[in-house]
Amino acid sequence: MHEFELMLVIRPNLNEEELKQVIEKAEEYISRVGGNVSKSENWGLKHIAYEIEGFDKAYYALIMYSAPYVSSKSLQEIVKEDKDILRHMIIHKHQED
Q1: DSSP conformation letters of 22-84
Q2: Over the stretch 35-54, which tens digit does the pLDDT of each residue have?
Q3: At what angle do helices 69-80 and 16-32 cross, to 10 degrees?
Q4: What DSSP state is assigned to residue 96?
Q5: How far is residue 62's CA from residue 41's CA, in Å, rounded to a whole number?
């Protein structure tokens, strides 16, 4: 298993319950592709560097997880389809030998 971080930039017009559901849905995606979530953080509403779809703020969430390498490619495709996620980034954390 490899270690990854998934950063989500989420629409700012969601209420607290909708935001929680988006984050939980991403965690479910990770489980569905064979991963295990180790930590999930909601960083709250932040100003973004440039407008995305007319928004100048967005919610940020960070999910740390482990999964087989090929699973993250599948996760990326699933996350792209979620209309509430404006941007995302998956980082593969290389382990020291």
Answers
A1: HHHHHHHHHHHTT-EEEEEEEEEEEEEEEEETTEEEEEEEEEEEEE-HHHHHHHHHHHHT-TT
A2: 899 999 999 999 999 999 99
A3: 140
A4: P
A5: 5
